[in-house]
């Protein structure tokens, strides 16, 4: 069974304090790894897709990287508006479905 | 603007009552999905639909039912058989089944009276 584990569960940062979130996965034949941002009471908003080890994607203060066993979401010099829950999901093999991790809740204090 | 609209935002269910959650999309997507989100857990797939008049059970379909009579609409009914319905329900769509990314609505929070 596909497994996706995100760590830490929660992360409290000072504004400007860079950090990384981890998403480790156990799947057969990764087809894609996806990062989403979710604000309280809202639906997830798509951020990135990564397809193969070594791939990197960037958007503003966020950078996602992928290895054969895990992905990292790096937040550089975060601002309070980066506070959200970040979700990781994988699609593997011939499966159409996404398997989601439980998320990392990031709080950035001014 | 294209997107997914879920309604209502909050819903309360009485004992023994069926309730229906609405999901409408104007993205012209063929595939639609329903997920359940509980604290501390990843999103879990309830039902999905590849095309009009077709739908399949996901991982946790018991106590739920759906219909797909129009491309734009994929309503979810939470029946009285679902004994633990309190959760945040999310509807999503994608161009075709298995195509990513999935785009999400802003959810319906269901609580028990």
Low-confidence stretches of chain B: none
The biggest beta sheet of chain B reads: 7 strands, mixed
Anisotropy-based shape of chain A: globular
Terminal residue distance of chain A:
41 Å
Strand-pairing-aware structural class of chain B: mainly beta
Count up the helices of chain A.
0
Shape of chain B: globular
List the keywords:
heterodimer; A: 110 residues; 0% helix; B: 113 residues; mainly beta; 4-stranded antiparallel sheet; 49% strand; globular
Description:
The complex is a heterodimer of chains A (110) and B (113). Chain A has 110 residues and is mostly beta strands. Chain A has no helices and eleven strands. In chain A, a hairpin with a 6-residue loop joins strand 4 and strand 5 (45-50). The model of chain B has no long low-confidence stretch (mean pLDDT 94). In chain B, a hairpin with a 6-residue loop joins strand 4 (31-37) and strand 5 (44-51). Chain B has 113 residues and is mainly β. In chain B, the strands form two sheets. In chain B, strands 2, 4, 5, 6, 9, 10 and 11 form a seven-stranded mixed sheet that branches. Helices cover 0% and strands 49% of the residues of chain B. Chain B contains no helices and eleven strands. Chain A binds chain B through residues 4, 9, 32, 34, 36, 41-46, 49, 87, 89, 91, 95-103, and chain B through 4, 6, 40-45, 48, 58-59, 90, 92, 97-98, 100-107, 109.
């Amino acid at each position: 069974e596909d497994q996706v584990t995100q760590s830490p569960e929660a992360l409290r940062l000072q504004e400007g304090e860079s950090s990384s979130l981890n998403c480790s996965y156990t799947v057969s034949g990764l087809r894609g790894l996806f990062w989403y941002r979710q604000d309280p009471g809202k639906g997830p908003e798509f951020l990135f897709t990564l397809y193969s080890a070594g791939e990197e994607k960037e958007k503003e203060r966020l950078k996602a990287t992928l290895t054969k066993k895990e992905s990292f979401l790096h937040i550089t010099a975060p601002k309070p508006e980066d506070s959200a829950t970040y979700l990781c999901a994988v699609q593997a093999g011939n499966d159409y479905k996404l398997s989601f991790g439980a998320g990392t809740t990031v709080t950035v204090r001014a | 603007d294209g997107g997914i609209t879920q309604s209502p935002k909050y819903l309360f269910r009485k004992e023994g009552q069926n309730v229906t959650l609405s999901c409408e999309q104007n993205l012209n997507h063929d595939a639609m999905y329903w997920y359940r989100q509980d604290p501390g857990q990843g999103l879990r797939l309830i039902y999905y639909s590849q095309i009009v008049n077709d739908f399949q059970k996901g991982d946790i379909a018991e106590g739920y039912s759906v219909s797909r009579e129009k491309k734009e609409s994929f309503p979810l009914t939470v029946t009285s058989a679902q004994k633990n319905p309190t959760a945040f329900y999310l509807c999503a769509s994608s161009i075709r089944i298995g195509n990513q990314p999935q785009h999400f609505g802003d959810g319906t929070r269901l609580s028990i009276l």
